[in-house]
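W.,

You were right to be curious about this one. When I first looked at the sequence I had no strong expectations either way, so I just let the prediction run and decided to look at it fresh. Below is the sequence, 189 residues in total, followed by the output.
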Amino acid sequence: MAKSAKKRANTKKTAARRPRQAPKMLSDLFHETLKDIYYAENKIIKTLPKMAKAAHSKDLAAAFNKHLRETQGQVKRLDQIFKMLGKPARGKPCEAINGITDEGAEIMKDFKNAPALDAGLLAAAQAVEHYEISRYGTLRTWAEELGMPDAARLLQATLDEEEATDHSLSELATSVINLEAEEEYRAAA
């Protein structure tokens, strides 16, 4: 018997002896996604003060600080959901939020003292909001489908806050921040 044929035969025997892993269920996906957003929210708690400090606009800094307080409450809701599941409140690294916050850090560095800094910070914050809205909408739906109305209610409360924050940021962008960045650009030209 050739080496490669022997190796395949041994691999099949080893695989046959391993106990089969239970299929992953929606409840497993719910828990994994909950860990993902838990990590994301805690990352956001560390990032928002830096964004508030970097912002030139007092209104934008205030918006970031308000969202920081909301995010701290959102983490408490997630803690409650982990408790409902009988699982420890623990996050797992989320590459999506790491990428979004890295982009925000890059904007703070590349546009420091530039007229467009606040517009860039606001855009980065909205990218975070859109990610959170997506995650919370999905988690809420899964909680409903899994027969977890209390978790669904908590997730909906957070989803409502995230949507309101996104709306407030859009209003701030179009009524103040983008206009100020454009005026500064025109004044410099």
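Here's what jumped out at me. Residues 97 and 131 are 8 Å apart (CA to CA). And, maybe more interesting for your project: The mean pLDDT is 90.

Coffee later to discuss?

I.
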